[in-house]
Amino acid sequence: MSDDIKIRIRNLYKIFGDNPEMALDHVKQGMGKTELLAEHGHVLGLNDINVDMPAGKTTVIMGLSGSGKSTLIRHLNRLIDPTAGQVLIDGDDILSYNDKQLRDLRQHRMSMVFQKFALFPHRTVLENTGLAPSVEGESKKKYADEARKWLARVGLEGQDDQYPHQLSGGMQQRVGIARALTSNSDIMLMDEAFSALDPLIRTDMQNLLIELQAELAKTVVFITHDLDESLKLADHLVILKDGFIVQQGEPQHILLNPADPYIEDFVSDINRARVLRTRSVMQKTGTGTKDIAGEVDHDANLESVIEASGGDTNKCYRVMKNGEEVGILDMRTLVRALVPQGGSDDPEAARRAG
């Protein structure tokens, strides 16, 4: 993962109510979401959030309804201002921005893909895709080639003159992604972008995003309530509950090392063989010599290795990355990794560590 941090969130709190500063004092003294609402009539949206989002990577914010994930993403473009804390983008605290700087942030440095597509019904596909340059005053003739390039990239070549109502849900969301790409921003915010789609279309869109990321390396912040989607898309995964971070880190590490009973419950029903990668369970190459049954890629899932082995737990495989050996995968180790492990005995410590 890149060491370059595009977005830093520091000690971020958001409290909804008539006197959030008063409520903030109670929260900092340890009062939780339920107590704050019952005793003071305020809603705790975010509780001491600290996250580093790497440049060119996908950070997924995951949680159930009411966890604070959509509240968090709206702080990144200041659709919501915090009660306390910092949001730093490229080292700049955007909470200090004036109106002109904020408009520039939203128009040139960030784009957003919405759950409900948010296309203008009276505009054609081409005109929706070219929304950002058109707002800047560019004519359709000037932005058309760029918009068509991204439409073709998301599989909508030749759909320029269609209107949103003539497209399926999946096609409309492809327009939304093309629109975000046409804005040429470094950061893409995606708020439950695929949750309104049918399962097969949703899988196609996830695969498209992965392909685009491999090619373009945008800084993507993706909001979802779906753990399978999180594990598939995330380079860095942040799991929220009741406004605070329960655990964050590399998805494979979280799956293998749940830090809290809440996370254990989340990952208990996951098909671990399909999600875990050989790089996460291999032994790094050392001096030991073993009989090798073959080679597997470092990013192959364990399901494919089980299939290749025919279920023989006596086999070992050489793990390869870019043509070089990086480890050894023993099938016995693989089998052990398929059994969920216990979490932390101290949920509060795990919460604070997050």
Structural features:
6-stranded mixed sheet, CBS-domain, 4-stranded antiparallel sheet, 17 helices, 14 strands, alpha/beta, Rossmann fold, 40% helix, 354 residues
Quick structural gist:
With 354 residues, the protein is an alpha/beta fold. It has helices at residues 20-28, 33-40, 69-76, 99-109, 125-129, 131-135, 140-153, 169-182, 199-216, 227-233, 251-256, 261-267, 272-275, 278-281, 302-309, 331-337, 347-353, and strands at residues 5-16, 43-54, 58-62, 84-89, 92-93, 110-113, 187-191, 219-224, 236-241, 244-249, 283-284, 294-297, 316-321, 324-330.
Low-confidence stretches: 343-354
Number of domains: 2
CATH T-level fold name of the largest domain:
Rossmann fold
Report on the biggest sheet.
6 strands, mixed
Strand order of the largest sheet: 6-7-8-3-9-10
Multimeric status of the protein: single chain
Q: How far apart are the termini?
A: 19 Å
User: Can you tell me the overall shape?
Assistant: globular
Give the helix proportion (percent range).
40-55%
What is the CATH architecture term of the largest domain? 3-Layer(aba) Sandwich
Strand count: 14
- Mind telling me the CATH superfamily name of the largest domain? P-loop containing nucleotide triphosphate hydrolases
Strand content: 15-25%
Description:
With 354 residues, the chain is α/β, with parallel strands linked by helices. It has two domains: 5-267, P-loop containing nucleotide triphosphate hydrolases (Rossmann fold); 277-337, CBS-domain, CATH 3.10.580.10. Helix content is 40%, strand content 23%. It is built from 17 helices and 14 strands. The strands form three sheets. The chain has a six-stranded mixed sheet, with helices on both faces. It has a four-stranded antiparallel sheet with strand order 2-1-4-5, sandwiched between helices. It has a four-stranded mixed sheet with strand order 11-14-13-12. The chain is globular, with a radius of gyration of 23 Å.
